[in-house]
Amino acid sequence: MLLNEKEEQFDDPLTVQINKYADRCINNSCIDESLYNLYDVKRGLRDKNGKGVLTGLTEIGDVHSYETIDGKVVPVEGKLFYRGIDVEDIVHGFLKENRFGFEEVTYLLLFGELPSEKRLANFNKVLAEYRTLPPSFVRDIIMKATSTNLMNSLMKSILSLYSYDEKPDDISIPNVLRQSLQLIAKMPLLSVYAYQSYRHFKLDGTLMIKNPRKDYSVAENILYMLREDGKFTPLEAEVLDICLVTHAEHGGGNNSTFTNRVVTSSGTDTYSAIAAAIASLKGFRHGGANLQVHHMFDNIKKNVSDWEDVEEVKEYLGKILDKQAFDGAGLIYGMGHAVYTLSDPRKVILKEFARKLSIEKGREKEFALYEMIENESPDLIKARHHMFKPVCANVDFYSGFVYSMLGIPEEMFTPMFAIARISGWSAHRLEEILNASKIIRPAYKYVGHHAGFVPYEERTPEEGCEEVLRDLEKGAATEAAGETGENTEKEAPEAAKERSEEKE
Length: 504
Known about the structure:
Number of helices: 21
Structural class: mainly alpha
Radius of gyration: 26 Å
Number of strands: 3
Strand content: under 5%
Helix content: 55-70%
Shape: globular
CATH class of the domain at 95-283 and 410-435: Mainly Alpha
Largest sheet: 3 strands, antiparallel
Strand order of the largest sheet: 1-2-3
């Protein structure tokens, strides 16, 4: 929709004026596309082949998707390493020993080595002690000004915790490590409580705030705090733990981790750095992708009559790619990755557990649909978009399906990513503090024109400005006369009681 079409739909003078400003912004801020090639700009910090520009070094996560054979770069099956150890080996290791893995992976990422049984037990005790919030934090912070997007609630809570820290700006390693462990332990609480607040105030649901159990793992506590009866099966907890493990780290170049390192390089505090990473993760091109996949499949299931008919499914996928179905973006969400080519190792792991869970939940037919679309999409995408690079399903392809089978509400999908990835963010922040000596500052070339200063009397007058100002003045006068809007959001019981006491 064009901006001038929007103007005709609103009588609000301020909206009309904002749309005029927007037109002006667009007209004066769009850069000629040819200049990016002229100056060899690495858009998105990638070269023309899509390879990321080398901006730093890390020992935390390694993403492997190509090999150089006889001087040629050849795509290979994807591999992901945490501190040099293959994630698939890590997963098989703790599953074989019948225990949860996320806490162990967090220890590995932070300290660079696998913990002994005793060290892991002590580490779990530390996390359990930190798995609490300051007095009245839920009432005073989480339940006030409830957000419709939980990622914004998370950022608010993280930044608010700064005020409860006696040494918030101390960036010594012991203090940052203490802050990191506290945030890792608190992130599940902040996420679940934000959802419960949203469910109560925005959806009129029952307010349910549960304290976590010290004897439960992170995965078990999430299911326990989300569910009214607090019950879950061993497979459910195992699968959620696998989700956390596979999302915990993905190298220094992904958008949220790089954001965290950029902000850290300025010398700012831990709470600001993690809040910035969450802001990045919220975007639909990053952490929000699993929700897009979930919505796409809901659309496919509604518009494809026979989920087992390959040709009917392919026909509808073609409509999606041709921008004739779903959201009109022309994308099959969950397919393709910036780095991986033949396979995403996280998807490989998660897919097998999705298969197991679908059997327990009686949703094998849905899993078969996912698998069919995974198999058929690459050829369709390459044909439509004339691509030569291999296309594979990424971790987001199955994660939303897994979350839905676990009964995790879709509002929690992206926060689940944050609960896992804060382990990697914390490790990268510590590494940046220890090794970097400069603020990260890439270059942007100025391509505008220089101009002289123009006096007021020689500038083009604002059209319609007087009418807007008059309308705004009328609106202000009306409000002053007592015609104000109502706040329809429910108050927390405690807050309502406080307000009544204040009136008395």
